[in-house]
């Protein structure tokens, strides 16, 4: 449905996206992950026909959108990361305004507004001014705007940022339902790995403008099939202990927070004795040492050196 071929975007001498290849098939939910500054927003702007690449080509159903973007724009819905609503208008008035931009009018516009309000769960709040809405309600209306013209493709750029758990779950279930019931193709970016695991058929991972991994969840998880994850918890972590783990020859990667360290080692390595010895040498009291199978979050950390929310 949508294909990026050797896409690069350069700002002066710096590449925001470099030699990116990506394929989105009809009916898929595809996840695009990367830490802040990875190039996700630039890539989305290019594939939405909002920004032209410095090099490369974007095809929609086999036709170049750089030469002729209108076919893509007619069937694409964009859910931006920032709330794009008029807060002094009601939910219904916002949908009327954006519906007219989509060239909807009359009975058709009313029908689409009623359907969208039901889909996003705001039918009983249609007459309320948006500035009185909670963050989750604004996010849902933001999605509703993108659904008005019954798009075949929806690009969702971190649609659950800064909202409560109930609204977040509602949005995730709505995305699933749109894909399952209406066969809507969705490109989804998020800072929450559990969202991507729940929603996406395939995943692309970006870092520093480059695509560094692509595949199904199972294929990407197999990147670390020969390793295991060890989670170490302590009441406090000392700089000396962290340093000793960083330079340890058997540890492949490490991520430290206030009271927890996650390390990755080869599956056959037994680190328990070494960890106890290092903790004693650093006068550190361990609370727990837990071994688990690597997750998608572990793969992301291994590939980028940063947690997804960094």
UniProtKB/TrEMBL annotation:
The keyword Repressor does not apply. Coiled coil: none annotated. Pfam families: ABC_tran (PF00005). One of its GO terms (molecular function) is ATP hydrolysis activity. It comes from the Bacteria. InterPro entries: AAA+_ATPase (IPR003593), ABC_transporter-like_ATP-bd (IPR003439), ABC_transporter-like_CS (IPR017871), P-loop_NTPase (IPR027417). Keywords: ATP-binding, Nucleotide-binding. This is Antibiotic ABC transporter ATP-binding protein. It comes from Virgibacillus pantothenticus.
